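Lecture 7 notes: from sequence to structure.

We start with a single chain of 347 residues. Read the sequence below before looking at the structure.
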Amino acid sequence: MNDEKLFLQEALNVQVNPVANVPDFSDASRFRKINIDKSQVSMLTQSIVPAAAAGLLSNAYFCKFPEGLPHTLMKLKQGGFASQIIGANSKIAGSASFYPMAAAGAFMGVFTVMSAITGQYFLAEINSKLEKINQNVSAILAFLYGNKKAELASEISFIQQIQRNFASIMQHEQQQIATIVGIQNAKKVAMKDIEFYLYDLDLAVQDAKGRATELSKKQKVEQIVESLELSLQLYISCCILEPYFSNNFDDEYIEFIIEDTADYVSKYQEKIRTSLGMLHGRIFELTAGKAKGYDLKARQAEIEKMLNSLPSGEGSVRQQLKEALYAPKKQANVYLTADGEAYYAIA
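Now the structure, written as tokens:
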């Protein structure tokens, strides 16, 4: 299996090594069990024969160049390349080595599955920090309102479903492509709904400033703020999910997503904070030098609670995105057991 191990290390940046002392996989603080087909794991834990190779890789080879030599093969008149390496002086400088990829197809299939499953683990960790979008649809419908209610709820339901089924979807290219299109559409819906709810919040603030009695009533400000937070979390989720489903973790692309999303979200978070601050200030104007009535005191406490719960600063959004989008680029250790089980080691 040396050829296959070499292929994994050189082409896929994957190393397969035996473990002398078996860790305690029941320790939930160190390991998470990966739900993977045992027959797939057995491809690695048992002898791999050429017959196990997948598709076109059965008669394919990969090329390795010796260190210090140029990566230019000799072109043949009949087409294709020979193993001889051509130097800058157009003379033969050495030979490249070709390694059969017969069993490598099986390796690639297994690691593709494991990559998808570890990706699902990362998404579950990310999702747990987005409290609004993590609620069930019934709880979300309880505070959504207006003609955007069904639209936003349906997109939230879609995002929740594809997150839960990430590993499965990533095994089917056509579904993967369709899912990316759905994510892009959900992102557009989130942006429209953010503007819609922010406009409603501005109206509510202006109404309260004009009529003092409105401040002591149970207004729909809480509903608007919750709907705004949900829309912003939907937007953040879409920005995270698109790289995951497209498997595009190029550094420049990730940095663009982080900067663009952090700038957009923090700008709207600050607008929400400003509007709530105006409501809070209005109460002080009305009660300056007077004892606050019970309703206004309760109202002030509600607004302060909302202000304290809002994320603050662009840095927190940027850090959240950085953790989410760079997680798949970090080294991952996966343990495969003789009985076909797999465990992901938590860093």
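The two ends are 29 Å apart (CA to CA). Keep this in mind for problem set 3.
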